[in-house]
Amino acid sequence: QVQLVESGGGLVQAGGSLRLSCKTSGRTSSAYGMGWFRQAPGKERGFVASISGGGADTLYADSVKGRCTISRDSARKTVSLEMNSLKPEDTAVYYCASRSLLYSGASNDTQSYVYWGQGTQVTVSS
């Protein structure tokens, strides 16, 4: 089993930056592929970024490419999402998710993920 807890959300002005963090725990969670997704009011949950279990491969949604960076530390105990040049359209609840296969790759498919955090709110004001 894997436990995920997000933090770092809040209110930021357009053009500003935020760093979201996902704290992981549980057996072999450091070797699982991880992803960030977001859901705005009235919309379906959408892909933001993903990183492979080993940290070598990453994927980004076109809407955030060049503005966001996903990373994990050397111990593979936390996964972060740095967001820069934020826009009001980035306002959403952001969720951290984990796959369940050792050394699994990066994926933009919601169905690839088994474990999910509770979400953290990001609000970008204009």
Termini separation comes to 40 Å
Number of helices: 0
C-alpha Rg (nearest Å): 13 Å
Structural class: mainly beta
Main sheet properties: 7 strands, mixed
Beta-strand content bin: over 45%
Give the ordered list of helices and strands.
Answer: EEEEEEEEEEE
The best one-word shape is globular
Unreliable residue stretches: none
Structure description:
By secondary structure, the chain is mostly beta strands. The protein contains no helices and eleven strands. Strands 2, 4, 5, 6, 9, 10 and 11 form a seven-stranded mixed β-sheet that branches. Strands 1-3-8-7 form a four-stranded antiparallel β-sheet, with no helix packed on it. The chain is globular and about 40 Å long.
Name its key features.
126 residues; mainly beta; seven-stranded mixed β-sheet; globular
What's the SSE blueprint?
Layout: E1 2-7, E2 10-13, E3 18-26, E4 32-39, E5 46-51, E6 58-60, E7 68-72, E8 78-83, E9 92-102, E10 115-116, E11 120-125
Parallel strand pairs: 2-11
Antiparallel strand pairs: 1-3, 3-8, 4-5, 4-9, 5-6, 7-8, 9-10, 9-11
Brief overview:
The protein has 126 residues and is an all-beta fold.
